[in-house]
Design goal:
Rossmann fold, five-stranded mixed β-sheet, alpha/beta, Alpha-Beta Plaits, five-stranded parallel β-sheet
């Protein structure tokens, strides 16, 4: 059953829409009708709908403003615009603004309306899938490099406003290549997916874990009280990753090397911050792996921060 929210203030047009949907396939659509945007917003916030049929001329909203209000309230719901105007320019504007289709009232049969609803749902799914693929790593489901850079940009802006540090970690898996070469790419892929899950378990939901490519990951920590907190997260990651794993009957052991920099102590742009964290990571790897290093001496926690993990190379 497809749940349809019809937003239409003209009772005649609303009844016509109901009738042609019922005539086409009464058992496939469940239609809810409201005649004002305010009521539509309330219903969308409290109920699940598969699609919205939207009139662009309402008592409390008009034109493409109506479309925007629906999108802000429920970005994932597909929208089919119903208009009394056979206006190709408006139709194009509506689709460019995010509507999945545009139909003219009185010119749509039940078959055409039913098909438009189903196609709108599929178009929205396809659109969201493309957005997902553009922003998330297909293997691990983590944020990818592109979205990570965007989140880091936003985190640095918030850091300036709130005067709170941002921890940036860059890490890779020591011994990953040996696993990949000896046990094969399928086991290697499973290891990457497991490592991604383990990394997420070491941080808060508000933190960001991303895969940058290969066996290289980044972690973005906001709202930490200082370097001590960031160091504790790094220690937790090292301890968690170092636990032996069983993948398809094979016992696999890897460790991590982590490079860390802290903004605004390291007061540079995104590319420099990533480069500094990368340099620190290779210093950690140069000490045999299973270590973390801070990029700057000024970022290293004081002795109560378990300095045994922090010798400077």
């Amino acid at each position: 059953m497809i749940k349809v929210l019809l937003i239409e203030d003209n009772p005649v047009d609303a009844q016509l829409t109901k009738d042609i949907l019922v005539e086409e396939s009464a058992d496939q659509f469940y239609l809810t009708h409201v005649d004002q945007m305010s009521e539509a917003i309330r219903r969308l916030r409290n109920e699940r709908f598969d699609v919205v049929l939207l009139d662009l001329s309402l008592p409390d909203a008009h034109g493409l403003e109506s479309l925007t209000q629906i999108q802000v309230t429920m970005p994932s719901v597909p929208i089919v615009v119903l208009s009394g105007l056979d206006d190709k320019a408006l139709a194009l504007q509506a689709v460019q603004s995010g509507a999945q289709d545009y139909l003219v009232k009185g010119q749509s049969s039940g078959e055409l309306l039913a098909r438009a609803i189903r196609y709108a749902i599929e178009r929205k799914r396809a659109e969201e899938r493309l957005i997902y693929l553009a922003q998330y790593d297909h293997l691990t489901g983590l944020v990818n490099r592109t979205l990570f850079r965007d989140r880091l940009t936003q985190a640095l802006a918030r850091s300036k406003r709130k005067k709170q540090p941002v921890g940036l970690m860059l890490l890779d898996l020591d011994g990953f290549k040996a696993v990949n070469d000896t046990l094969g790419h399928d086991i290697g892929d499973q290891l990457l997916k497991t490592a991604a899950d383990l990394l997420k378990s070491c941080v808060r939901e508000v933190d960001t874990v991303a895969r940058m490519g290969g066996d290289e990951f980044t972690v973005l920590l906001e709202g930490a009280s200082g370097e001590q907190d960031i160091a504790r997260v790094a220690e937790r990651i090292l301890e968690t990753i170092a636990q032996p794993l069983v993948l398809e009957g094979h016992t696999v052991s890897v460790t991590a090397s982590i490079g860390i920099t802290v903004y605004p102590l390291d007061d540079h742009g995104i590319d420099d911050l990533l480069r500094h964290a990368d340099t620190a990571m290779y210093r950690a790897k140069g000490h045999g792996g299973n270590h973390y290093r801070f990029a700057l001496e000024s970022q290293v926690p004081s002795p109560q921060g378990r300095p045994s993990a922090l010798p400077q190379g």
